[in-house]
Design brief:
There is one protein chain. It is built from 7 helices and 8 strands, in the order H-E-E-H-E-H-E-H-E-H-E-H-E-E-H. Helix 1 (about 1-15) crosses helix 7 (about 195-220) and helix 2 crosses helix 7 (about 195-220). It is an alpha/beta fold and about 220 residues long. It binds 5-O-phosphono-beta-D-ribofuranosylamine (GRF). 5-O-phosphono-beta-D-ribofuranosylamine binds near residues 47 and 207.
Length: about 220
């Protein structure tokens, strides 16, 4: 299943022009010790997989300490198991407010000795509690060229607006939804025949490409 999705993605990416903001070489942190990542995901987890693969391919000097997920049965948890990464379910339905959930997330991440946190398809609004626990070290990926099309349904929003180019963004997390300093973006043309699914699939090819680079950049920023 995962490999057929990857085949589809690579077939599409070959035929689609794209533009990525300046490339970041993994060599930038080659001599440092691997950065300890915590990943937060709600669903599919293809970005989790892309990070695990980038680490394996030595495109990212990191190790994944833990996956936090909030939906029982999230595919991301099965992926983590396949990669031998511990996963922790923190079901938001069992917390009385967002702050309580974020406090628990921060505590778990610290318990696993996490240095850099990636919200890779985390479909919950985060609070200042989590942002303060990881200043400049909380990162989000979003399927649009921010600041356009923030929030849920970014791909649908782009199609409805009729833009001819959209894309994806990796950024440091600030309090407003899908806001904060931008690390990397990739542009993806919108085709006349696109549905939300086909466009999202091409955007995800680029997400998987820029997320490891963005983390390298984030490590760099934090080491200065
Ligand atoms: C991605 O498109 C990401 O930009 C958005 O949620 C989606 C997660 O995809 N925040 P996956 O679960 O990593 O496959």
């Amino acid at each position: 299943m995962a490999s057929s999705v990857m085949n589809l993605n690579s077939a599409i990416s070959d035929s689609t022009p794209t533009l990525v903001s300046p490339t970041v070489s993994p060599n930038l942190i080659a001599t440092d010790s691997p950065v300890k990542l915590g990943i937060m995901a709600s669903g599919n987890g293809s970005n989790f997989e892309a990070l695990a693969q980038a680490i394996k391919d030595q495109q990212l000097n990191a190790q994944i300490q833990v996956l936090i997920y909030n939906n029982p049965g999230a595919k991301a948890a099965a992926r983590a198991e396949r990669w031998g990464v511990p996963s922790v379910l923190l079901n938001h339905r069992e917390f009385k407010n967002r702050e309580d959930l974020d406090r628990q997330i921060a505590q778990k991440l610290k318990q696993y000795d996490v240095e850099l946190v990636v919200m890779a398809g985390w479909m919950r609004v985060v609070t200042q509690v989590l942002i303060d626990a990881f200043p400049n070290k909380l990162i989000n990926i979003h399927p649009s060229l921010l600041p356009s099309f923030r929030g849920v349904g970014a791909v649908e929003q782009a199609l409805e607006a009729g833009v001819k180019i959209t894309g994806c963004t990796v950024h440091l997390v600030a309090l407003d939804v899908d806001s904060g300093p931008i690390l990397i973006q990739a542009a993806v043309p919108v085709l006349p025949s696109d549905t939300p699914e086909t466009l999202h699939a091409r955007i995800q090819v680029q997400e998987h490409r820029i997320l490891p680079q963005a983390l390298t950049l984030a490590v760099r920023i934090n080491s200065h």
